[in-house]
Amino acid sequence: xxxxxxxxxxxxxxxxxxxxxxxxxxxxxxxxxxxxxxxxxxxxxxxxxxxxxxxxxxxxxxxxxxxxxxxxxxxxxxxxxxxxxxxxxxxxxxxxxxxxxxxxxxxxxxxxxxxxxxxxxxxxxxxxxxxxxxxxxxxxxxxxxxxxxxxxxxxxxxxxxxxxxxxxxxxxxxxxxxxxxxxxxxxxxxxxxxxxxxxxxxxxxxxxxxxxxxxxxxxxxxxxxxxxxxxxxxxxxxxxxxxxxxxxxxxxxxxxxxxxxxxxxxxxxxxxxxxxxxxxxx
Length: 282
Ligand code: NAD
Hints:
282 residues, alpha/beta, Rossmann fold, 7-stranded parallel β-sheet, 39% helix, 13% strand, globular, binds nicotinamide-adenine-dinucleotide
């Protein structure tokens, strides 16, 4: 890779430049997805914020437009495969292609087998857990990620310009978290392994596929339970740094993976969890 003007290899910061590229983010109305969308816009990309909550996606897009960024919004439930294709096509029509896609939408509903304050949760055991919650988590977290990456790959292959696909997995893809609903663990392990497989398949097209594995971040996930002091303390204590994260802290990693700064990174599982997956201190 050389700089077009000078024939010299690009400098480090130049490789983070995504001005003029376009990005689509799922689950972009809140939390980590909103941080991704902001990071892309702040770095000069044109962005489509998509979310099952279309009104909130439009509200956030309007807020970013008021700051001078080029963004649009679209309503998308990622478990709806036909709608996913429509929304990607609308992005392509608006911005002339797709360079960066975040398969981020996800949720963690239902009880874990262990309560945040300690003790078994009677509703969260393998034999008491409501199977409808399993179906919903898998449909959104895993099948939704497949639906999203499927259409991202379709548009990127069509353009012939390569691209970067980034999925939000979780450190729960690697470790098991007793206070998190059980289906969340296999849903994220599935996302992480899908990323590895697609990296293998799509590398020849210069399409890079990587996963971000967050630990606990303060968002609206699990009905905002990470904002509850008891739940928050359980997560603070689980990290080596003694504190859960704020979403602005994920933006530089998103920009690294989205940009040419990671031009030789594909199939990677980028852990950002305050060391939580290494083990507990106490
Ligand atoms: P959040 O609830 O703040 O944001 C999730 C967004 O996804 C919401 O705007 C919601 O409306 C949207 N959404 C939910 N179902 C959807 C669907 N079917 N289609 C499209 N959009 C949908 O939560 P978050 O923490 O920002 O979660 C984002 C991603 O990060 C998820 O995949 C989650 O599993 C992952 N994650 C979060 C944490 C954490 O601690 N917050 C840790 C690891 C992984």
